[in-house]
Structures are given as structure tokens and as C-alpha cells.
Amino acid sequence: MFIVGFVIFLLYMSGLLYMIKKSHDDQKRKRMKNPETKNYDQNDYDGGGNWGRFENDR
Question: Residue 53 is inside which H or E element, if any?
């Protein structure tokens, strides 16, 4: 009984991780096709811009 449950759990978790990876790759591919977001800043997690990485002029 526990072996069958464990096999079902493994199948469920592998399917879940596969779908998460597939949707992530699909979203990344759509973002790269869009000309507005083609130069997407990978370090800008909040979308607020490049506020913390200005070079000092001094």
C-alpha cells in the first residue's frame, strides 16, 4: 500500500515539476519575442528600474 502511494506521489511530483518548468520556459520565450521586453534586465526583480546600480560620477 505504501509503495503504491509512493509511486503515485512520485508521478504527481514529477508531473508538477515538469509543468512548472514548461510554463517557465514558455513565458521566457514569449518575453524574448516581445520587442518591448527583449532587453529585459535579469536583475530587476521588482520592475522598478535600475535605481540601485548607478555609477558614481565623482
Answer: none
